[in-house]
UniProtKB/TrEMBL annotation:
Organism, as annotated: Paenibacillus gyeongsangnamensis
Membership in a protein family: Belongs to the bacterial solute-binding protein 1 family.
InterPro entries: Bact_solute-bd_prot1, SBP, SBP_1_CS
Protein name per the record: Extracellular solute-binding protein
Keyword Protease: no
SUPFAM superfamilies: Periplasmic binding protein-like II
Keyword annotations: Signal, Transport
Length: 452
């Protein structure tokens, strides 16, 4: 038997603790604790209730993870006919982030909803919009034990846990093995080797790197990888985590300049900033693109389903003279599920969460290709080979960084993503990064003024 789950490098856990140590006092939900036994619970009385459930779903394409969530609902309803659901699943990506943030501001929070971790979750917790799940987890040790302390710390503020981690993701470069084999190509170890691959594919009328940058966070992956390979993890630690560095520092400017050089070289499609993930995934699967930069939770399931063992991956290669390494990875406990603080049905919510995070339902999700924050048991052959390889890669990473836009928070995370989207056009790097630094400084001043 094999065990896969949420093992994280010590460096990652250390960064989580850095964030938690800086946490301000956070509020909790005013509703009865999800682990308590409310006397009016429909779970006990059999009274019909409806839970509002919100999660993202891709429009216009198959979405296996959304289908998994729908299966959860249908299977759970068969066992609990008194519990129904109002499902909200009509948006995804940045639009879903906007929807969640808007509903939080209006205090119109679903009973259960998919959210994020770290600084994207913190404002929801500190505004008392989401439920304190600490008592629930402590009362169900068989569930809590399935998450490592580092995974739970990404959803914990001031000692209280506000979300159940779902996925643990890496950002990598996927490639079509058939395309690489056809042109005698190997995954690159250096940036110069990557440039040679780009030239070969371009010469043979194959898109070298399909980049679905309509959602600008995707294009930020390349920026993060390049900046780290040039300046090492210190640039990330100082600027993203400690907020003491500057976005105008040399590694960031050089990374942006190299991105624009790749554009001029023809590494991407001309409409790179209007491409969607499904479009890019299809091009990779059909051999019309050789490589595709993506996030494992966003793309791994779809690529496993469409390509099987024809899809491979590699981490971004070393840059000559750089301080970073191809053994340094971007990986984060990313998606999670939270409960609305004002839920009127805590027992029913508790019951559904336990069902969704059961061994059987988590294994079903893992079989699709998702990398999970939940520790589950799998038999040989249960998981796609790609998933096994990615899990081992994450565990063996030399150094790890969170995806920068998540610890930066909603505001600065969006500003970073929008800034990097401009690098695929003709935006001047120094000017754009100076503007980004100004926004970071303004946000810091506002935070300091609010603390007085």
């Amino acid at each position: 038997m094999k065990r896969f789950g949420n093992a994280f490098k010590t460096g990652v856990a250390g960064l989580v603790l850095t964030l938690i140590a800086a946490a301000c006092s956070s509020g909790g939900g005013s509703a009865p604790a999800a682990g308590t036994n409310g006397t009016n619970s429909a779970a006990q009385s059999g009274k019909k209730v409806t839970l509002q459930l919100m999660y993202p779903k891709n429009s216009g394409s198959a979405d296996p993870r959304a289908q998994w969530m729908q299966e959860n609902v249908e299977l759970f309803k068969k066992e609990n006919p008194n519990i129904d659901f109002e499902v909200i699943d009509n948006t995804s990506g940045d639009n879903y982030l906007t929807t969640v943030t808007t509903r939080m501001a209006a205090n119109d929070v679903p009973d259960i909803f998919q959210t994020w971790t770290l600084e994207r979750l913190r404002p929801f917790a500190e505004s008392s919009r989401v439920y304190d799940l600490t008592e629930f987890l402590n009362s169900t040790p068989e569930l809590k034990s399935k998450f490592s302390p580092s995974a739970l710390s990404a959803t914990t503020f001031n000692g209280k846990t506000y979300a159940m981690p779902l996925t643990q993701d890496l950002e990598v470069v996927y490639y079509n093995k058939d395309v690489f084999q056809k042109f005698n190509l190997q995954p690159p170890q250096t940036y110069d080797e990557l440039l040679s691959i780009i030239d070969v594919l371009k010469k043979n009328d194959i898109v070298p790197i399909s980049m679905p940058n309509k959602e600008p966070w995707v294009g930020t992956i390349l920026f993060m990888m390049l900046a780290e390979r040039i300046g090492g993890t210190d640039v990330y630690q100082k600027t993203v985590i400690e907020k003491t560095g500057s976005w105008t520092d040399k590694p960031f400017v050089e990374a942006a300049t190299m991105m624009q050089d790749l554009v001029k070289r023809g590494a991407f499609e001309k409409n790179v900033n209007s491409l969607t993930r499904p479009e890019s995934e299809i091009k990779l699967a059909q051999g019309k693109a050789g490589m595709y930069i993506g996030l494992t939770s966003a793309s791994n399931v779809n690529l496993v389903q469409s390509m099987g063992d024809k899809v491979g991956f590699f981490n971004f290669p070393d840059v000559a003279g750089g301080k970073g390494s191809k053994d340094d990875y971007l990986q984060t406990p990313t998606n999670a599920f939270s409960v609305g603080a004002a839920t009127k049905h805590p027992e029913e919510v508790k019951k559904f969460i336990k069902f969704m995070y059961s061994q059987d339902r988590q294994l079903a999700l893992a079989k699709l290709g998702s990398m999970l924050a939940y520790q589950f048991t799998a038999n040989p052959g249960d998981l796609p080979p790609l998933s096994e390889q990615l899990a081992k890669t994450g565990i063996n990473a030399k150094n790890s960084m969170y995806f920068w836009d998540i610890p930066l928070g909603v505001y600065m995370g969006k500003e970073l993503n929008n800034t990097t989207q401009g690098f695929y056009m003709d935006v001047e790097p120094q000017q754009a990064l100076s503007a980004l630094q100004k926004k970071a400084e303004d946000q810091k001043k506002q935070a300091q003024a609010g603390a007085k």
